[in-house]
Design brief:
The structure is a single chain. The chain has 4 helices and 4 strands; from the N terminus they run H-H-H-E-E-H-E-E. With 190 residues, the protein is an alpha+beta fold. It folds into 2 domains: 61 residues; 85 residues, Alpha-Beta Plaits (2-Layer Sandwich). Strands 1-2-4-3 form a 4-stranded antiparallel β-sheet. The model has no long low-confidence stretch (mean pLDDT 85).
């Protein structure tokens, strides 16, 4: 029976480095690809940031030009010779805004919230500086309960806002109705 004794007579022993060498090369290639992708992303973001800065600068210059034009136009409007035209413009725009209130739609909306025992004596729409319609109304009734019912309906309606009673007049010899003058916001549908 022969026994084998493993003796390596080489000056350096044999090592299995091929798998380690191949995996190291693959890892290096992968890291180089990731580095290239990151460099590409940094370049793209730098290009986008430069484009954004250019766009912001362009918009800032356009805004500055618009502001300068606005100042020039306001200065021109403040001149004495243009004041009359400006006042006429404001007056005409106010008239157009008042004409925008549809009386047919207004009465149809009021009909939905007014009880039958309440009489509409007068109504006057007013346009506020915020372009909101406020109705200045005078209503009459034989007693106060139907008016309270109408006020609750007005405030519950999506078309009408908070209601304020400005005056209340009791019946007199000439007028048999309780008269209430009230103010209510109105959001007219187109």
């Amino acid at each position: 029976m022969q026994t084998r004794i493993a003796i390596n007579l080489a000056s350096e022993p044999f090592r299995r480095d091929r798998a380690l060498l191949v995996s190291s090369i693959l890892l290096a290639i992968l890291l180089i690809a990731v580095l290239a992708a990151q460099i590409l992303l940094v370049y793209q973001e730098t290009t986008r940031a430069e484009q954004a800065r250019t766009e912001v600068a362009r918009l800032d210059s356009a805004l500055s030009r618009s502001a300068a034009e606005r100042v020039r136009l306001e200065k021109s409007l403040r001149e004495a010779q243009n004041a009359e035209v400006f006042d006429r413009n404001v007056f005409l725009n106010t008239l157009i805004a008042r004409k925008a209130v549809s009386w047919t739609q207004l009465f149809a909306d009021l009909e939905k919230v007014m009880p039958g025992s309440v009489r509409l004596v007068s109504v006057r729409p007013q346009i506020t500086t915020a372009n909101q319609v406020v109705l200045d109304m005078t209503v009459g009734s034989l007693s106060g309960e139907p008016v309270v019912d109408m006020l609750m309906r007005l405030e519950a309606s999506p078309l009408f806002g908070a209601t304020t009673i400005t005056t209340m007049l009791p019946p007199s010899q000439n007028e048999t109705l309780y008269r209430y003058r009230l103010s209510v916001n109105y959001a007219q549908r187109p």
